């Protein structure tokens, strides 16, 4: 099948993470999610308490246990991956909570342990834009000069009123300042946005995409809002304070978003992975491949590709 989009190995019409990794490293590369035992400034009281309203005790549901060493967490996943794919390389991914929110000595110990594992070709670190000190920024700059480093910045929405609703406890201005600090140091950045947040219209969601697109991030993750048991947002949903998106509504917003992104921006995620045991809604999201297939079909139906409406 003819694919009009160049940055894809599998007939996708957007810049896939798989294409990027294969092109950069020449082989199969996969992330391994790790838990470094971090907390967040909006959990420990520094900025707020309770965490983000959609978060169940900290992000990184599929990361390892902080009770295990980084080496043990890494090896337990790598051994499974080695059976699935031959000659695989890895990017350790510090995913759970805010992974720069600690003294630089602790970060150095954990990051270097991860980088010392066999067949590691880089490092990914998920964090918040209000949680990178000057010392940590210097260390990240050092790392970026000797390995492939990707700092993943949670933004979720450009609208501060939305941030207040979901207890993000940082502003868009703080995000932008952190983003430019990282880019000025030559550090790769992946921006996270959530589609379907309470109170946001389709136009607001796409405004977030447009504003982020103008920054030309290296990568982006577009998450579907998951309602998880035990979260504050689950109570709000049960009380009828907002509703979830339907499948095709979400698909159309995602395709709109892809059209608005520069074609050079790598798309790491277009939905989410909700655990069947903890997911309240939307239940259609459990069929991840159905969601991705519907996105592909809508792009073919429109005869469109990523970047078709990017305007700078």
Strand order of the largest sheet: 1-2-3-4-5-6-8
Uncertain spans, ≥5 residues at pLDDT below 50? none
What portion of the residues fall into strands of 2 or more residues? 15-25%
Radius of gyration: 19 Å
Q: What is the 3D shape?
A: globular
In short:
Helix content is 37%, strand content 16%. It has 312 residues and is α/β, with parallel strands linked by helices. The longest helix is centred in the N-terminal third of the chain and has 15 residues, at 70-84.
Descriptive overview:
- The protein is an alpha/beta fold and 312 residues long.
- It has helices at 17-25, 70-84, 104-115, 134-144, 160-165, 172-184, 202-214, 232-238, 247-260, 288-302, and strands at 29-34, 89-94, 122-127, 148-156, 188-195, 219-224, 227-228, 266-269, 279-281.
- Strands 1-2-3-4-5-6-8 form a seven-stranded parallel sheet, sandwiched between helices. Strands 7-9 form a two-stranded antiparallel ribbon.
- The chain is globular and about 45 Å long.
- The model has no long low-confidence stretch (mean pLDDT 94).
Map the helices and strands.
Blueprint lengths: L16 H9 L3 E6 L35 H15 L4 E6 L9 H12 L6 E6 L6 H11 L3 E9 L3 H6 L6 H13 L3 E8 L6 H13 L4 E6 L2 E2 L3 H7 L8 H14 L5 E4 L9 E3 L6 H15 L10
Helix pairs in contact: 7-9, 9-10
Q: Which tags fit this structure?
A:
312 residues, alpha/beta, 7-stranded parallel β-sheet, two-stranded antiparallel ribbon, 10 helices
